[in-house]
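Moderator note: this is an archived Q&A kept for reference. The question asked for a predicted structure of one protein chain; the sequence and the answer are reproduced below.
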Amino acid sequence: MAASRGAAGPPARGDTECILEPLSLPESPGGVDAVESSPYVPCIFCKECYVLAEQNQLLKHMIIEHKLVIADVKLVADFRSYILHWKRRFAEQPITDFCSVIRTNSKAPLEEQDNYFLLCDALPEDRLLREQLQQKKLREILEQQQQERYDTSFHSVCMFCDQEFTGNRSVLLNHMAREHAFNIGLPDNIVNCYEFLAVLQGKLDNLQCLYCEKIFRDKNTLKDHMRKKQHRRINAKNKEYDKFYIINYLEFGKSWEEVQSEDDRELLDNLEEDWSDWEEHPVCAVCLFCEQQADTTEKLYLHMQKSHGFHFPKIKSEHGLNFYQQVKLVNFIRREIHHCRCYNCQEKFESKGGLISHMEETKHIAFLPARSTWDQPQYYFPTYENDTLLCTLSDSEDVITEDQSEEVPVVSEDISSLKALKQSSVLNQLLCEENKSQKKF
């Protein structure tokens, strides 16, 4: 066969030009420009590349292999752009033109000494680069936040009750704050809301408490823990959440804790200033039966009377409710409304709207059930953790309890003569009466 092939002469031109399998272009031409289009972050000095999530591995590599230390990396707004900039600059000029040199083991023999290079914002070019990256990031974040504020295509599910919400993100965030006492902040202070909610949902799916971050064996145990320990909140010290709050992008080189501590120091420094023109920020309280809010209790009471027929001041006066009884009544009503149950006839409804319509039509909303129903110790505890109405309640000056039907003056006894006091004290009479009643039995 080999001889016959050789005898056949040179192959025809068409045979040599046949392509029997697909060809491949070079995956990436060399150079910094090619690296910029890659999803990886390159080493400043060599061809090693790491995904952005492995940022710490890259930093470790540059310290061990190239003796380069980058200061305050956590405050670099765009780590990849930062690395690419210095990769270009170090290719143009020696590293010693930019970095401070730190010599270790300076007292040891020369061969045992090491030189490390420090790249930090003390270098004007480095500081300018960090500021530019910060400004660029801030613009992107503000544009994203503005888009989310007016986005009406939002769709998500409450992580506590599985209720679906569509429209604007504020609907879901306000629901979780109001119905589940889970408040992650004002909607306008949050950015990348979808990602934020996904991170929180992921922790709950992994049976992890959002505050103490402990892992539990099942969902019910986790829910009980978060409710009893009041852990329905996020851990402010967890840096994972920083990227979801606008405040962390506002000032170059400062986290929200540093910004807040500066505000506190300014407040302490200004304590001696004149506060005569200061006006208290109004605290909004929520209606017992709907989502209407008011900045004063008078406005809220007027709304409940006109819109629902519930006259709170009149009920307080007629029943002689002191402060603690008012607290229990408010928490009782909140609990029943939350369960969509009429607090007079105990009928349950599918929705809060159906319940309120029933209570207004039957006038059940205007009358309280028996005192023994709501005047219970369990209602000392708020139904909603952030119920501002409880902070505005007060004892009425014209409410008179049964034991205070008339003002009784209290006059102290004269103790100048203890012997005479013992003989004439009213306690003697009370003791005699007590002894007589015991002999009868």
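Archived answer notes: The chain is about 45% helix and 5% strand.
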